[in-house]
């Protein structure tokens, strides 16, 4: 590690090799995405949620860039990434293809993938469709609308959200959305973080957010319809859920049972925005997971731990 004198600040600073870099990524269909990278070591790709953007991974970028090469990006529709005008440019498949484009642009053959909510869905699809690109996966707060009996209700809520964004405006939507049943936990624990997050949501593109809600969120298949593909995931998986995030909790337990390599951590008195709500705990869980993956100690479930058994006696 070397340092150089900065005449502007009047202090010694690390050379640019260790500083954050930004890079424009061109997707397979010609959309430009904003990406950022910092640190060195094994790469970690952070994929944000619907209400988030590249900024909402800051607690993790700061922590893990000390030991890893950390990459994050804004999804299409989230400035400074491009906002395509065509509604057909937004889908779960586009989200997966965009993540691959980011990895390619940063010359990363395979990465540890950390995704939350919409980003967790992306990570699961990546692990199924591109297993060679996913070294391990953390899927946090993942499951909204996945349970079969909730699919139609969730899609109706997606339509309602898109309409509110387009009629009331992104700022009004941000306040309503961030006061939802799985967001008030953050507001109660950390009002400053909640206010900052709400401000970020209010800065998003109304057009991009509405198109993302309709094309990606509403249009994605239920995870329960993908059970065979999920059961075939070989990469180590850590599922994180808040115990008050009712839209994800049961699906998180189901994912643990379906994916042979999955472990599950449930955070007490916690909602949906886990990486901001409980950053220290989430960072500790991710760090421990990555250390076990590196040691080859995160394997598949022992077949003797039959989820259909109680004591093993009959």
Concise summary:
The chain contains twelve helices and ten strands. The protein has 314 residues and is α/β, with parallel strands linked by helices. The protein has a domain at 14-144 and 220-294: Alpha/Beta hydrolase fold, catalytic domain (Rossmann fold, 3-Layer(aba) Sandwich), CATH 3.40.50.
How would you describe this protein?
- This protein has a domain at 14-144 and 220-294: 3-Layer(aba) Sandwich (Rossmann fold).
- Helix content is 41%, strand content 18%.
- The chain has 314 residues and is α/β, with parallel strands linked by helices.
Topology:
Elements: E1 3-6, E2 11-14, E3 21-26, E4 32-38, E5 43-47, H1 58-64, E6 69-73, H2 92-105, E7 111-116, H3 118-129, E8 134-140, H4 151-168, H5 170-177, H6 184-189, H7 191-202, H8 206-218, H9 227-231, E9 237-242, H10 246-258, E10 262-267, H11 274-277, H12 279-294
Parallel strand pairs: 5-6, 5-7, 7-8, 8-9, 9-10
Antiparallel strand pairs: 1-2, 3-4, 4-6
Low-confidence stretches: 1-9, 11-17
Secondary structure class reads alpha/beta
| CATH superfamily placement of the domain at 14-144 and 220-294 | Alpha/Beta hydrolase fold, catalytic domain
Q: What is the count of DSSP helices, taking H or I runs of 4+ residues?
A: 12
> Which bin fits the share of residues in helices?
40-55%
Q: What's the architecture of the domain at 14-144 and 220-294, going by CATH? A: 3-Layer(aba) Sandwich
Count all strands and give the number: 10
Order of strands across the main sheet: 3-4-6-5-7-8-9-10
Which outline best applies? globular
CATH class of the domain at 14-144 and 220-294: Alpha Beta
Beta fraction? 15-25%
- Per the CATH scheme, the topology name of the domain at 14-144 and 220-294 is Rossmann fold
